Amino acid sequence: MNKQSKVQSLGEEIANAISHGIGALLGIAALVLMLIKSNDGYDIFGSLVFGISMILLYTMSCLYHAFKKDTLVKRIFKRFDHISIYVLIGGTFAPLFIIAIDKPLGWIYLVLQWAIISVGIMFKAVKINRFQVMHVILFLGLGWSGLTLAPTLIETYPNVFYLILSGGIFYSVGVFFYATRFFKYSHFVWHIFVLLGTVSHFFAIYLYIL
C-alpha cells in the first residue's frame, strides 16, 4: 500500500474520532462503576490503573483523529495515541496481577510486564514511525502473555479467562484491519474491535475480579 492510500478521508477521521470519543466516555463510566464496587485498597488501585488507562487511550485516540492532518498538534497526539496502547495493555492486566493472582507472583508479573512496556513506550516516544513490526509484535506478545495465567484463571476464575480470551481475539482480529487498511473505513473497523476487546476485559474485571 502506498503512502497516498494510507491517507484517511475526512469522513473516516470523523468516524474514528467519534468512535473513540464514545470509548472515552464509556471509560469514565467504567472507572466510576469499578470504584463503587471496590472493597479494599487493592481493588481501588487495580480499578484506577485500568480505568485511567482506558480513558487515556480513548481520549488520545479521539484527539489524534479529530485534528487536521499534517499539523503539529496531530503529530503530538499521534505519539500519545500510540504510547497509550502500551498503557492500556498494562492497565488491563494490572487488576489481574494485583487482585486475582497470588502474591508475590502477581506483583512479579506486574513489574516484568511494565518493564517491557516501558521499553516500548521509550521507542515510541523517540522514534514513533520506526520499528513498526517490533511494536506490533510487542503489542500482541504482551497481550497474549496472559495465556501464562490460563491454568490459574481456568481453575479459580473460569469466566474471567473466557472473557479475557475473547477480548484478546477482538484486539487481534482488529490488528488485521489496522495493518492492512485494504478498504475504506478499515481503521474505523479496527476501532470497533478495540472497543469490543476493552468491553470484554471490563466485564471480566467488573463482574468477577472486583
From TrEMBL:
InterPro entries: AdipoR/HlyIII-related, Hy-lIII. GO terms for cellular component: plasma membrane. It is a multi-pass membrane protein. It comes from the Bacteria. Zn(2+) binds at residues 65, 187, 191. This is Putative membrane protein, hemolysin-III related. GO terms for molecular function: metal ion binding; pore-forming activity. Belongs to the UPF0073 (Hly-III) family. It is found in: Cell membrane. It comes from Acholeplasma brassicae. Keywords: Cell membrane, Membrane, Metal-binding, Transmembrane, Transmembrane helix, Zinc. The chain crosses the membrane at residues 21-38, 44-63, 83-101, 107-126, 133-154, 160-179, 188-209. Its main location: membrane. It holds the Pfam family HlyIII.
